Amino acid sequence: MLAMDYRGPKRVRLDRNKPMPEILHPQDAIVRVTRSCICGSDLHLYNGNVPDTRVGETFGHEFIGIVEEIGADVHKLKVGDQVIVPFNIACGECTFCKQELYGNCHEANPQATAVGGIFGYSHIAGGYNGGQAEYVRVPYANVGPTVLPDWMHPDDAVLLTDVVPTGYQAAEMGGIQKGDTVAIFGAGPIGIMAAKCAWLFGAGRVIVFDQEEYRLDFVRKYAQCEAYNFKSIEDPVVFIKKTTESLGADVCIDAVGAEAAGSALQTFTGRKTLMQAGSATALQWAINSAKKGGVVSVVGVYGPTGNLIPIGNALNKGLTIRGNQASVKRLLPRLIDHIQNGTLDPKALITHHIPLEEVSDAYRIFANKLDNCIKPVLIP
Ligand code: NAD
Ligand code: ZN
């Protein structure tokens, strides 16, 4: 079959002869992929910043498709069903799944102490093959996959696998109270969705920072919020203080993750990879611009350690810092309702439909923010 194939940092290609996935366990399903996005999280892999990303791996954790085959113990799905597959692989029964922490499932990734299983996300997330391919094996098929409602547009459905729940959970973890000022770092798909969702929780003001003018334009219109280029203001921390009577934002959301560390990290550490060094400018800005007693919600993905975060400032301000991989299954029912009643319109974020055959171009466009790309979806 055709599949995306990782060759090393910034090198991906199309593999025309990847072996077809097989049922390995009675609860597996094989899904024929119909849409598969590239995510900002894939860029951490693509840039070579995630430890134990192996040459020959297929990425892709945001996909929908049609059930092609089911294992003997799969009873919630049948062949031919169209399914939304959450990016978290979750057993549904371990102590974490029982708390609806589906992003932290123990069974799906027993070697790890932090993250659970994720499709196509290196061996730190369980070593599963991803969905940037014609077919993919879906473990625990009674748990994650949800049949697509017949009224739903497939572009909305594919964004329910990650972007919508992650943006929503970013806002939810912020504990936004009515009238709160919410500052969001990053206007990629996740920051944009977080801005949109912040209003659903009662925000009084939403301010987004990025450096890509076209993304700032997009979020301003799409989420009806303020948006600023952090390169053209003196410093987001000073900026936020000035516009909040020196108090800071009630809630700050980091929707950037490791790459923002770039120059800052080199200055501080001269170390090898961002994921090893951890921390980043966006997170520092989030902590330093939060109001005393405020909340910092981190959905940007980092390496296991974070030794450069201004923990002293966080402590002295009495901040609450929350973060996690989104718990997709927990949020799906309410997000499907939001799409049905029109309060969320995720498909507007998809700017590019690209054949799977052109996967290396798709990565180049998304990684380099070319052609006003917000979110690309691969079509096998
Ligand atoms: P993206 O790469 O498309 O967007 C990131 C944006 O951040 C870019 O527009 C970039 O210009 C901007 N940026 C860079 N440095 C910045 C800074 N210092 N301040 C403000 N903006 C800055 O990525 P995305 O798909 O939107 O994902 C964003 C982050 O969310 C990534 O780290 C990704 O791994 C993570 N993520 C987490 C989860 C989760 O479950 N927690 C799920 C999906 C994605
Ligand atoms: Zn993703």
TrEMBL record:
<protein>
    <submittedName>
        <fullName>Zinc-dependent alcohol dehydrogenase</fullName>
        <ecNumber>1.1.1.-</ecNumber>
    </submittedName>
</protein>
<dbReference type="InterPro" id="IPR002328">
    <property type="entry name" value="ADH_Zn_CS"/>
</dbReference>
<keyword id="KW-0560">Oxidoreductase</keyword>
<dbReference type="InterPro" id="IPR013149">
    <property type="entry name" value="ADH-like_C"/>
</dbReference>
<dbReference type="InterPro" id="IPR013154">
    <property type="entry name" value="ADH-like_N"/>
</dbReference>
<dbReference type="InterPro" id="IPR011032">
    <property type="entry name" value="GroES-like_sf"/>
</dbReference>
<dbReference type="Pfam" id="PF08240">
    <property type="entry name" value="ADH_N"/>
</dbReference>
<dbReference type="GO" id="GO:0016491">
    <property type="term" value="F:oxidoreductase activity"/>
</dbReference>
<dbReference type="Pfam" id="PF00107">
    <property type="entry name" value="ADH_zinc_N"/>
</dbReference>
<feature type="domain" description="Alcohol dehydrogenase-like N-terminal">
    <location>
        <begin position="26"/>
        <end position="145"/>
    </location>
</feature>
<dbReference type="InterPro" id="IPR036291">
    <property type="entry name" value="NAD(P)-bd_dom_sf"/>
</dbReference>
<keyword id="KW-0479">Metal-binding</keyword>
<feature type="domain" description="Alcohol dehydrogenase-like C-terminal">
    <location>
        <begin position="189"/>
        <end position="269"/>
    </location>
</feature>
<keyword id="KW-0862">Zinc</keyword>
<comment type="similarity">
    <text>Belongs to the zinc-containing alcohol dehydrogenase family.</text>
</comment>
